[in-house]
């Protein structure tokens, strides 16, 4: 488990508690103000195994009934490649990223452009626009 003062896994350089920690299930003090902040919090949720946050931040029309995370995947690094819209004043946005991981001793990269929309006033993940695993 990550401590509150540890660097947040999302890569923004802030301590976990003041960064994505405030959006995850154990804290849930606030909703992410932008599509990018939500995407970073979802990456962090994968790192720490917070299935509740992943499901809660997923649009109801595309959300799976349940989610089983692979405990053998080690998420290593997030690189945000770009964003389109998704500000506090938008109703939709796109975030393109690479999530670097290790599985069974091998490195991998998940490259995705994700669609985000506002639902009931808060950002939610709608799904991948394009997705490939390298």
Automatic annotation (TrEMBL):
InterPro entries: NTF2-like_dom_sf, YchJ-like_M. Coiled coil: none annotated. Residues 34-126 form the YchJ-like middle NTF2-like domain. It comes from Kineococcus rhizosphaerae. Pfam families: YchJ_M-like. Gene3D superfamilies: 3.10.450.50. This is SEC-C motif-containing protein.
